[in-house]
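Morning!

As promised:
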Amino acid sequence: MPMFIETCTAPTNIAVIKYWGKDEARGLNTPINSSASVTLDQDDLCAMTSIAASSDFVADRLWLNGKEEDTAGNGTHAKRLRKCLAEMRGLARDRVDASGAVVCTATELASYKVHVVSRNTFPTAAGLASSAAGYACLVHTLAKLYNVEEAYEGQLSTIARQGSGSACRSLYGGFVKWVKGRKPDATDSMAVCVADQAHWPELRAVILVINAGKKETPSTEGMQTSVETSPLLAFRAESVVEPRLAAMEAAYRARDFEAFGKLTMQDSNQFHATCLDTYPPIFYLNDVSRQAIRLCHAFNEHKGRILAAYTFDAGPNAVIYCEAKDRDELLAFMLHFFPPPRSGVESYTNKPALLKAAAAMPLEPALLAKGNELRTPAAGDVKMIYCTAVGDGPRTLGADEALLDAATGFPLEQKLQKWQQTLGPAGGGGGCPVAPTVSTYAAVAVAAIGFLLVLKKSN
Amino acid sequence: MPMFIETCTAPTNIAVIKYWGKDEARGLNTPINSSASVTLDQDDLCAMTSIAASSDFVADRLWLNGKEEDTAGNGTHAKRLRKCLAEMRGLARDRVDASGAVVCTATELASYKVHVVSRNTFPTAAGLASSAAGYACLVHTLAKLYNVEEAYEGQLSTIARQGSGSACRSLYGGFVKWVKGRKPDATDSMAVCVADQAHWPELRAVILVINAGKKETPSTEGMQTSVETSPLLAFRAESVVEPRLAAMEAAYRARDFEAFGKLTMQDSNQFHATCLDTYPPIFYLNDVSRQAIRLCHAFNEHKGRILAAYTFDAGPNAVIYCEAKDRDELLAFMLHFFPPPRSGVESYTNKPALLKAAAAMPLEPALLAKGNELRTPAAGDVKMIYCTAVGDGPRTLGADEALLDAATGFPLEQKLQKWQQTLGPAGGGGGCPVAPTVSTYAAVAVAAIGFLLVLKKSN
């Protein structure tokens, strides 16, 4: 029985020019405006997927952290999953060995059922664009499995986009633009790498995972309501985004943090403004999010320039971009106002050493005074602080990393069990591959029962 | 020594189509868009002012709740106060007695210095458009004192507007529109009564006075920043407000609460959206405000129609409009989730009997269940619940109501002392004339030292 296995990881991405709203007229999960994002380092946050194809498999099956999920159902995401599979099978080419000899024809390959095992290496609860990483990883792994070569640049991203809009931006590293496109068939609505991760290696991100209160509006549902009811969103998509995106692209190319940071904060605020203009209004920011925002502005005012730039997706978590030279002081400032729990920093971050150093850093009295006007330091409002940086695109791993047994083609139980065990209450400490949790697909599969409410994905 | 004294009260107003942003090009405190408001019953909330003019007075003087304030300073509001005085003196006409005989010529009258005593009959801390009521009351009382007749309809509102923009809307009862106007001299930027209080007498308002956290951006400063930085505000002023205002006017004329309520909520949310789109962003709503918003939508969803409509000015307080037939159930619902303090309802409202009745009202289990998904009932988030209704315009009171001694022209000490004593921690229980507090002018006079930060006026 021939069996082929591929294993890959894919990064998350956090938009700096937000995507909010599908273009129902064109369909195919195209956006009402172009968007742009920074790809985050998958050493800190990533989705990991192994896919096996074999003539012996009787069905396409999916395991998420040891739990098998339905792939045949009518849930939006089960359907999207099947759509991605079908599209990729259509692009299959012969698999060849090192010598170039065909080991399996495209036709055979496409006829084989697949076993998919996937997980995120960060807490789903963190809601850090896990579906973007998940779908990007799925498409990239299938591309390896089926030996796919893009017929045109961005072809894969048009497929990933149909899984989860922002997933297409996770197919590249660095600064990635998702072009809205114009063609009726939407084949031109794709992600484009504007500058790879090597262009601005000093770019860092400090992520405050903020405790959400009551359940939030799922982004898929939320953006549809916004498109239907917000006059401000229509105006934003038509008139604000394009010039802003051009300015953002120029700022990134020039590594001009002042311009990049201001545009990032303005666009995040405008996105949340359109949510508020939606009827009924949608709220993703809470009082803690607002304190993080004010603290960022206080930090910048104190410094006399923009050194820290927050952005929020469809949830209360703050992603704060900065440059390496300013990261530690920013971290010390935020850590002072959002201190770790009594149990210490170990379970509070993916970089305990960094946080310990930051905690020991003295803060300028004037800066501290500014902060004290905005918040009284208290633990509990922030669940975790992630430290990461701009990163590269999807990676192909070796056979030894596979999550599937090369002999049976079934999930490697001991690995799955390990993931389960390492699942902490907060979803674990994050960081590859220490603390996996319910992956994207789990979220995806149970979206119908509202699991996605904690995902705060999209954008 | 001839002395003339007039005493009047003026109501507050709460905008349903919001005013946010001055037209700096035209100046004279004209708005970038027209707005509309409902005047609230001054039996519940009002400003009260006595003004005496006498040849014996040596200076224009101002007393606020027994405390004399500077009127000669360079503070924005001291200047505005003087401007209103100067303009009104310019409109003075001879004072005549019952027989029509002139008792004082316009020239003499205008040459006399004045003594002004003013107070609000509701807690300034409540931040319920107290400056609107205050300036409207000042202008109306001066009009009586100087026997002013408008040369054109709305002339007085163009003067009140220069004290505080929204003050012009407090010069009339019922549904009042502040027309932006077009003339360069801004004499056409005035308030117009669209429908008086008798048109829709069933209209009620339940006001949740919500505890503010950290200090907020004063509205005068906030709206200027918004005009300078928010692309969404410019679009709103240019393209959204006019058609929305026309629809609102039609809804009010037709007493169509469904349409009136939806537009009211949408416009409140859009105003706060433009605050969020401001750079740096301005936040007036807090998590409790948001819970009040969600509870309103839950109430309406449960009823299958819009029976309650919230609106928020430049602060966290919720003003919820409804009709008389739905008021008690709405009150019971809100009271359940925002219960009074242990001390009871007496100091929690201006209508203890109403709240006691509401507290005893059984809530539909399904409605209760909806609410429980949104908030866990707890005291403290709401300071007070006011119950009021649509009301009439400024009133002229009799000599016996005067706050000034007819013999000396100085404040009546015992009355002033009484106001001081009745000043509760929350600013007293509200309601004419039981619980006065620091009035508008106090706020106005000390704006420079940030007192206005708790006023949440404007709109």
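The longest strand of chain A covers residues 3-11.

Hope this helps with the figure draft.
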